[in-house]
Amino acid sequence: MDQRARCRGRYNAKKYREKEKVMAEDTATAAPEPAPVAVWLQAWNVATSDQISLVAAGCAFYAMLAIFPALSLAISIYGIGFDLNTIEPQLAVLQRLLPESSFQLIAGRVRELVLTPREDLKLSAVIGGAIALWSASAGVRALLGALNMAHGQTEGRGVLAFYLTAFMLTLGAVLAVVVGLGLLVALPTGLHMIGLTIGESLLLRLSSLSLLLVAVLIAISMLYRFGPNRPPRYWRVFSAGAVSATLLWLVASAAFSFYVTYFANYSAMYGALGAVVALMTWMYVSVYVILLGAELNAAIERYRRRARA
């Protein structure tokens, strides 16, 4: 009897020690919470360097080359499942974020594409799609290089794998625009059929902006996940960098639109090119914010590695 009790006691003690060991290992591998102020300052110091600024400027240039061919491609794909005349009313969401001159530049091109016969639109989609994907892919490749710099990595993927990653991210962005337009059309149509009060109409407008923010958040998260040479160790969809970049993009876009509308006069300085300059500047700000979010994620990851060492 005593022998069995002693054996049982030794067995329980052994199991307890094993459990303590597992808990200790789990605690050691768990990512410590970063110090917010120090991490933000580190990310900001890196993001304000000239190198990040140059990458953002290069990406904005390629995005400017790609935007109008990409519009042709996106509208052609959109026209397969939706009425093209439903596109223009949905641009109201974009109008809240862009300077008026830049918005009119894009809206005017959208109107031209909507009025284009479908046969001609298909041809322009093929040509424009090739140009858009090449230009946008070049911008994405520059962005991938910046993400590698943020995480202290060197590009180790083969040429084919690197170009394929950039192409798939570019294609995913185009498809996301199409799906986003579809949701912006389908949601108001469905809610309108059941009848809306004034409060519900306001809620509908807010839901359109929410859909846009969710789409931007997911797109940025996917870029942070698949962009660097090696995926971040602590990646998640709602990472601090992705959420911060999304919110900063919304605030920066609204602030830049307000500044251009009420203070800056690009048309007086650049003439007919004023809308183009304003649009390119907005793209520069957008890319810069994305890189700032990447630097924040990288700073958090470095802090966690040091805390574990």
TrEMBL record:
Recorded superkingdom: Bacteria
Cellular compartments per GO CC: plasma membrane
Swiss-Prot/TrEMBL keywords: Cell membrane, Membrane, Transmembrane, Transmembrane helix
Protein name per Swiss-Prot or TrEMBL: YihY/virulence factor BrkB family protein
Pfam families reported for this sequence: Virul_fac_BrkB (PF03631)
Subcellular location: Cell membrane
InterPro entries: Virul_fac_BrkB
Signal peptide: none
Keyword Isomerase: no
Record's bilayer topology term: Multi-pass membrane protein
Transmembrane segments: 54-80, 123-147, 159-186, 206-226, 238-262, 268-296
